Amino acid sequence: MVWAEQLTVAVDSALRDRLTTELALHRRIAKLRERGRHGIPKLIAVLDGCDAGRGGHSWLERRYLELVAADGLPKPVTQAVLARAGDRSVRVDCHFAGTPVVVELLGYHWHRTEAQMSRDAERLNALAVRGYVPLQFTYRQVTTAPRQVMRATKDALLPHLRG
Known about the structure:
Layout: H1 2-16, H2 22-33, H3 40-47, H4 59-70, E1 77-85, E2 88-95, E3 101-106, H5 114-129, E4 133-138, H6 139-144, H7 146-161
Parallel strand pairs: 3-4
Antiparallel strand pairs: 1-2, 2-3
Helix pairs in contact: 1-3, 2-3
């Protein structure tokens, strides 16, 4: 299934970088489908979100989404803007809709300098003040201790999913 994973990464990256839109992709698919092109069903499956990692903006986010799907948890909304911290919007990696639970995935690239850590703290505080339950997981935790990551996620979600 490596081909589907690579296609998911390519599509999500193009959408994130605003190189295309889902509408433009669907229009192109409609034109190509008229000519009997192979691979169109796979692209449609990716756009429809059939791939568990669909929607992640980084490898780490996609891996977390795969873990969530494997555990049968509801798929979170990715890159949701939930608050403001000063003059900045607070965008979270994952928000479990209908709950206050948000997840931040801390890769080494965006969370290592003093300035980056200060922004992370401001964002986390802004979320907590507004009643969100923020969880943070590092690259190492997601890759080497996925059971603990999912246990913490379930523990946070459980009180909000009972109903």
